[in-house]
Amino acid sequence: MKTLLSIPLLYILILMLCFASCAQQVNFQKSTHVPAAEVEMKIDRDKNGNYTIDLKVKNLAKPQNLTPGRKTYIVWNQGDYGSFNLGQLKLDDKLKGKLKASSVYKPNQIIITAENNPMATQPDNQVVLKSDEINID
Question: What's the CA gap between 45 and 24, in Å, rounded?
């Protein structure tokens, strides 16, 4: 009888561990600047404790077509310690782009800005997309 009860309990524990180690899906708010844009993003922690960001966009207008036009998009990690440039988000001819990045800093929100300088150290005020608040440990 004990073995029959412990088997379902073992399955439940295994499922809980699997879900605990899965990446967190993060939603992005609709944008008035780029209303057709769709963002898919997952955040996880790697074995070193860093935060890994896997971001994909589609239907994102080229930054040159914005008003005012810019040269590139930059993805930013916004957290308790400030904003950090995670890298450029380049688009292909089908208006799709992706970025994989990691950070030692816990993100509270991810934003995408249109910038003229790909080496920007602070986000410009032209925020085109921003995530909902991120709650990850």
Answer: 10
Beta-bridge mates of residue 101: 53
Closest CA to 133 of 98, 106, 114, 113: 106
pLDDT, one tens digit per residue, over 16-44 is: 444 445 789 999 999 989 999 999 999 99
Classify residue 124 by its DSSP letter: -
Do residues 44 and 24 lie in contact, with contact meaning Cβ atoms separated by under 8 Å? yes
How far is it, in rounded angstroms, from Cα 50 to Cα 43? 10
Which three-class secondary structure state does DSSP give residue 103?
strand
| pTM for this entry | 0.83
- In angstroms, the CA 128 to CA 5 distance is 53
Given this model, what pLDDT does residue 136 score? 84
- Structure tokens, 83: 């904003």
